[in-house]
Amino acid sequence: MSRGKLVLFEGLDRTGKTTQSDILVERLQPDVTLIKFPERSTEIGALIDRYLKDKTFELPDQAVHLLFSANRWEMAERIKQLLLQGTHVVLDRYVYSGIAYSAAKHTDKMDRSWCLQPDRGLPRPDLTIFLTSDDAENELRAGFGEERYEKSEFQQEVKRQFIEVFKALEDNSQEQNLVQIINITGKSVEQVANEVWELTEPVVRAPTDSKNTEILY
Ligand code: NYM
Ligand code: MG
């Protein structure tokens, strides 16, 4: 039996990640599980949820970064077990959001390499799809501004950080994780979903050694 594949959606806020991951999960039924980060139902997740919603709840940025990472480690064993039993796992955000949002706060003392460190050893995605849009289109979408980080200038810095992270992955020939970028500007949900499927189908079809869950870096 081939192991399941780990397919990740990344992007700025309000770029349709949740919509697209739901559609992909429908297409991959029945052997598929959706996991969204932050996973707000755990104790660490509850703290993260409060931090995102309550803009008066202050924590050091380093501590917040480590909470997001700890939240992934809480779920890591479950992700590994699902993959090994042949179930595909679709992720709505993961490590690269962790790096991009934190590094955007402090490009000096919390640079991208500092940010990656606590995530080292987590399961590596087989495919990462970065949903992006022209300019600040995401800021016009319903709900933008409700949570911490949903501010125009900050989003643009996060976007720059995402692009740098993916450039570094592309330059690393050891890297097995395939990164694909979809620009959603001017496209319907269905059009984007079809592009997602064209990218995902060959990855989920490719057989993989059942014992092999690659680790990150
Ligand atoms: N976020 C998410 C981080 O800052 N670091 C992380 O590691 C992850 C997984 O949480 N603005 C931020 C990005 C989002 C916020 O996520 C909530 P979502 O997908 O918008 O619910
Ligand atoms: Mg959001």
In short:
Residues 9-195 form the Thymidylate kinase-like domain. The chain has a single domain (6-205), classed as Rossmann fold (3-Layer(aba) Sandwich).
Topology at a glance:
Blueprint: E1 6-11, H1 17-27, E2 32-36, H2 43-53, H3 61-84, E3 88-92, H4 95-105, H5 112-116, E4 127-132, H6 152-171, E5 178-183, H7 189-205
Parallel strand pairs: 1-3, 1-4, 2-3, 4-5
Helix pairs in contact: 1-7, 2-3, 3-4, 4-6
The chain binds 3'-deoxy-3'-aminothymidine monophosphate and magnesium ion (MG).
3'-deoxy-3'-aminothymidine monophosphate is lined by residues 13, 37-38, 52, 68, 93, 97-98, 101, 147, 149.
Poorly predicted runs of 5 or more residues: none
Bound molecules: 3'-deoxy-3'-aminothymidine monophosphate, magnesium ion
**Mass-distribution shape:** globular
CATH class call:
Alpha Beta
What does this entry look like structurally?
This protein has 217 residues and is of the alpha/beta class. It has a single domain (6-205), classed as P-loop containing nucleotide triphosphate hydrolases (Rossmann fold), CATH 3.40.50.300. Helices cover 46% and strands 13% of the residues. The chain is built from 7 helices and 5 strands. A 5-stranded parallel beta sheet has the order 2-3-1-4-5, sandwiched between helices. Helix 1 crosses helix 7 (189-205), helix 2 crosses helix 3 (61-84) and helix 4 (95-105) crosses helix 6. The chain is globular and about 50 Å long. The protein starts with 5 loop residues before the first strand and ends in a 12-residue tail after the last helix. The model has no long low-confidence stretch (mean pLDDT 93). Magnesium ion binds at residues 13, 147. One of its GO terms (biological process) is dTTP biosynthetic process. One of its GO terms (cellular component) is cytosol. It holds the Pfam family Thymidylate_kin. Pathway: Pyrimidine metabolism; dTTP biosynthesis. It comes from Torulaspora globosa.
